[in-house]
Amino acid sequence: MRKIKIFDTTLRDGEQSPGVNLNYTEKLEIARQLERLGVDVIEAGFPAASPGDAASVKEIASIVKGCSVTGLARSTQNDMDIAWDSLRVSDEPRLHVFIATSPIHRQYKLRMTKEEVVENAVQSVKYAASKFPVVQWSAEDASRTELDYLAFIVEKVIQAGAKIINIPDTVGNTTPIEYAGIFKYLKENVPSIDKVQLSTHCHDDLGMATANSLAAVLAGATQVEGTFNGIGERAGNTALEEVILALYTRKDHYNAGTDIVLNEIKRTSDLISRLTGMVVPGNKAVIGNNAYVHESGIHQDGVLKEKTTYEIINPELVGFNVNNMFLGKHSGRHAFKTRLEELGLEVTEEEMKKLFITFKELADKKKEMTDDDLVALVLEEKLSKNESFFDLKSIQIQYGTNQVPTATVTLSGRDNEMIQEAGTGAGSIEAIYNTLEKSIGEEVKLLDYRIQSVGAGRDALAQVFVKIKYKETESSGRGLAQDVLEASAKAYLNAVNRVIYLKDRESVSI
Ligand SMILES: CC(=O)SCCNC(=O)CCNC(=O)[C@H](O)C(C)(C)COP(=O)(O)OP(=O)(O)OC[C@H]1O[C@@H](n2cnc3c(N)ncnc32)[C@H](O)[C@@H]1OP(=O)(O)O
Ligand SMILES: CC(C)C(=O)C(=O)O
Ligand SMILES: [Mg+2]
C-alpha cells in the first residue's frame, strides 16, 4: 500500500478564513494536537506576514518533534530569510516557497512574463536550498496554467533543488478528471519527476476539494494538503478528515493509507472549531454531530439489525463516544486527573488546583461533566491565563417583558481596583455589553457574536464566541459558563484582555 503524507495547513491557509485570528497560545495548542494526531507536516504559518506569525512558527518549530514543521514564503529573499529565522530551530528545516504560474496571475497580479516567473522560481528555490535541507515549491494557480509551461517550470525547479512539488487548485476551479490529468501529464512530461514527491492542495469553491485531492492521489500524488474542518480562504481547503477516512474506508479502491491516529480526529476537529469559532455543521462528513445519527424508521431498523446496513464508518474509530464514564460532583482529584491525562490534556500542578475547584463548582450545578466539558474547561484555563486584566467578579441582570433590561457588573481592573457599573440595553446581552464598555472606559465595537452549547442536555455549558474592535485592533474572545449571559460577559472581557495583552507585548518588544 502506498503511504500518503498528510500536510496540515490549518495554521496557515486555515487561518486565512475570514474572521479567524488565532493567538500564539491557541496556535501552539493546535500544533500539539496535530502532532498527537500524527500528521506528517504542519504548515505553522507565513513568517513574513507579521512578527507574531514569525514568533509562533518559531515556537512550534522548536516544540514539535513528532512531525515536520514548515512555513510559507513568497519568492523573495526577504520572505525566505524571515522564514529561515523561524524554522532553523526545527530538526529538519523545511521551506514552502511559491509563485503563481497561470496566465491570469502572471499578467495581472505579478506583472511578469513566463520567462520572468521561471527565472524567479529557479532563483528562489536555489536560494532556499542553500539554507533549507527540504524545499517544497508550489505553482500557485497551477490548475489554470498551460500544461506545457507547467511541466517546463516544474523540471526547472526540480533541477534547482526542490524536493516536493505542489500543484494547487488555488481557486477550486478544477474537476477530478481534469486534475488527475494534470498529475498524469507531469509524470509523463517532466524528465526528473521521479526525484520528487507530488503534492495536492485544493480549495472547495465548487465543493470538489476532497474529490479532486483523491483523484490526484490516484494519479500519483503522495502528499495531500488541507485543513481540519475544511476551514480556509473563501470556501475553504480540502477537509483532511474526509480524505483520511476515504483512504481508510476505501483502501480497496485507493490502495493507499496514512499514519493518522484515527481516534484523535474528532478531538482535533472540536479543538479547531472551538478556537477558531467556526462551528462544524451537524451534517458535515466524518465529524458532524449528525454523521452517525439515524433518524428514519427504516434506517433505525436496519442499524438495529446490522450496523453496516447504514454505517460505513464506526463512529468510535474517529473518536466519537469513546468514553461513557462521566465525572460528577462526587468525583475526586484522582479520577479528574486521570481523565485529563486520558484526554491528552497536559496541565501543571498549579493549573490542576484551579481547574479542580472550577470543576467542582460546575459539577455542583451540572449533573454530569462530559469529556467535551473537561476539554472546554482546560482550554479556558490555559488560554486565558496570561490575559486576565479585567476580571468578572459578579454580574446581575434584570429582565422582564415590557421592562428595560438592566445589567449590574463588578469587575476587577488592571491594578486590582474594583469597578462597579450599571447600564441598560434593548436586550440582556446589549445591557451587559453597554455596561462592560462603560466599565472599561473606552469604545469596544462588537463585530460578531456566536453562541454554542458544549455537548447536549438542558444543563449543557454555554460557550460564547465574540469578535470585537478595541483600541483600533480586532480581537476574538471566548467565554464558558453554565449561564449564557455570564458566558457572554466572559467572552467580551476575554477579547478585550487579549488586545491589552497584545499591546503590552508590542510595547515590551519595541
Ligand atoms: C494562495 C495563497 O494562499 S497565497 C498566501 C496568502 N497569504 C497571505 O497573503 C498572508 C498574509 N499576507 C500579508 O501579511 C501580506 O500580504 C504580506 C506581508 C505577505 C505582503 O504584504 P505587502 O508587501 O504589503 O504586499 P501586498 O500584500 O499588498 O501585495 C503582494 C505583493 O507580493 C507579490 N507577490 C505575490 N505572490 C508572490 C510570490 N509568490 N513571490 C513574489 N512576490 C509575490 C504581489 O505581486 C505583490 O507585489 P507588488 O507589491 O509588487 O504588486
Ligand atoms: C500558496 C499555495 C500553496 C496556496 O495556498 C494555494 O495556491 O492555494
Ligand atoms: Mg491555498
In short:
With 510 residues, this protein is an alpha/beta fold. It contains 17 helices and 16 strands.
Q: What secondary-structure arrangement, pairings included, does this model have?
A:
Elements: E1 2-3, E2 5-8, H1 24-37, E3 41-43, H2 51-63, E4 68-74, H3 77-87, E5 94-100, H4 103-110, H5 114-129, E6 134-140, H6 147-160, E7 164-169, H7 176-189, E8 197-202, H8 209-218, E9 223-226, H9 240-249, H10 251-254, E10 256-257, H11 265-276, H12 297-305, H13 333-342, H14 349-365, H15 371-384, E11 391-398, E12 406-412, E13 418-424, H16 428-440, E14 444-454, E15 461-470, E16 473-481, H17 484-509
Parallel strand pairs: 1-10, 2-3, 2-9, 3-4, 4-5, 5-6, 6-7, 7-8, 8-9
Antiparallel strand pairs: 11-12, 12-13, 14-15, 15-16
Helix pairs in contact: 1-2, 1-11, 2-3, 5-6, 6-7, 7-8, 8-9, 14-15, 16-17
Bound molecules: acetyl coenzyme *A (ACO), 3-methyl-2-oxobutanoic acid and magnesium ion.
Residues 13, 168, 170, 201, 203, 237 line the site of magnesium ion.
Protein name: 2-isopropylmalate synthase
Keywords: Acyltransferase, Amino-acid biosynthesis, Branched-chain amino acid biosynthesis, Cytoplasm, Leucine biosynthesis, Manganese, Metal-binding, Transferase
Function: Catalyzes the condensation of the acetyl group of acetyl-CoA with 3-methyl-2-oxobutanoate (2-ketoisovalerate) to form 3-carboxy-3-hydroxy-4-methylpentanoate (2-isopropylmalate).
Explained architecture:
GO terms for molecular function: 2-isopropylmalate synthase activity; acetyl-CoA C-acetyltransferase activity; manganese ion binding. This protein is α/β, with parallel strands linked by helices. 42% of the residues lie in helices and 20% in strands. The strands form 4 sheets. It has an 8-stranded parallel beta barrel with strand order 2-3-4-5-6-7-8-9, surrounded by 8 helices. The longest helix has 26 residues. The protein is globular and about 75 Å long. It starts with a strand and ends with a helix. The mean pLDDT is 93. It binds acetyl coenzyme *A (ACO), 3-methyl-2-oxobutanoic acid and magnesium ion. Acetyl coenzyme *A binds next to strand 5 and helix 4.
